[in-house]
Amino acid sequence: MSEQKKILVVDDDRDLCRMLERYLTVKGFAVDQAYDGETALRLVPKKEYDLIILDIMMPGIDGYDVCGRLKTQREYNHIPIIMLSAKSAEMDIVTGFKTGADEYVTKPFEIQKLMKAINDTMEKRRRAREDLGIKHEIKFEFESRYDYLDKVNELISQLFLRTDLAPDEIWNLKLAMHELGINAIEHGNKLDPKKQVKVSCALYSEKLEFVIEDEGEGFDPSSIPDPTAPEGIRRDRGRGIYLVSQLVDEIEYINGGCMAKMVRHLNKPRRAGAPRGPQ
Ligand SMILES: Nc1ncnc2c1ncn2[C@@H]1O[C@H](COP(=O)(O)OP(=O)(O)OP(=O)(O)O)[C@@H](O)[C@H]1O
Ligand SMILES: [Mg+2]
């Protein structure tokens, strides 16, 4: 069963927004609407949109600006954007593509033409991801509060469903995510609810990759005492990092320590005596 694709429609013409919402919902998409650029930029980090339909002339931040801002951010530049605009001069269309639009449809438009643009751009994106070897990807942000960690667990479970990892192996990865999530909240963001933790998880045919990023000052992992050394065994610092290193195949702290990237290789034989979690 394929998942419902999420589309964000951004247009200050509310009637058009509602019309598109109804039409695309019938076509099986989950649709959100934004009537201005600010709202669109606020909504994008909250959901993993598969496509954005974007008007250009809007009060406040216009469509070119919204497109430019999203296309210059690593987390969002993969989301296809179709510009839908009454600006139909060649120069306007060129500007649209220059700011990073994937498609440009001029108003007034035929709905079939827009549908074709939607299907074509999504298909292009799917093929580009396949070329990278990515089979499934989940990205989200959460505020620095402990109760969000349960939500993270729930979200990443979608990824595990697509692997043939055993329940105890999944439990190990969830535990590693939990330790890194707590470190990002406590040590990185110092429990400041205004600071976000960004998580991205990707399933490739041969590996799972998780990246967790906080907005803190980072740290030097080489300065953390080894909790297994005789003099370190009683220290309560360093156990989380050590545990993670035992639970995944690769762990790397990048961006001065604000970002942790861990990798679990798939298709490898089970380790004898691997720690077993709940079944
Ligand atoms: N995201 C981060 N940002 C800044 N400092 C960090 C971060 N992650 C870890 N650290 C530093 O590394 C130290 C070791 O982290 P580790 O998870 O191993 O132990 P801990 O969090 O202190 O204790 P616990 O055993 O409860 O996890 C932390 O005390 C902190 O100083
Ligand atoms: Mg810790």
Protein architecture, described:
The longest helix is centred in the middle third of the chain and has 22 residues, at 111-132. Helices cover 37% and strands 22% of the residues. The chain has helices at residues 14-26, 37-43, 63-71, 90-98, 111-132, 148-160, 167-188, 239-247, and strands spanning 6-10, 30-34, 51-54, 81-85, 103-106, 134-143, 196-204, 207-213, 250-254, 259-265. The protein has a 5-stranded parallel beta sheet, with helices on both faces. It has a 5-stranded antiparallel beta sheet with strand order 6-7-8-10-9. It is elongated. With 279 residues, it is an alpha/beta fold. It folds into 2 domains: 6-132, Rossmann fold (3-Layer(aba) Sandwich), CATH 3.40.50; 134-265, 2-Layer Sandwich (Heat Shock Protein 90), CATH 3.30.565. It is built from 8 helices and 10 strands. The two termini are 26 Å apart. Strand 9 and strand 10 form a beta hairpin. The structure holds adenosine-5'-triphosphate and magnesium ion. Adenosine-5'-triphosphate is lined by residues 179, 183-184, 187-188, 214, 216, 218-219, 224, 236-241, 257.
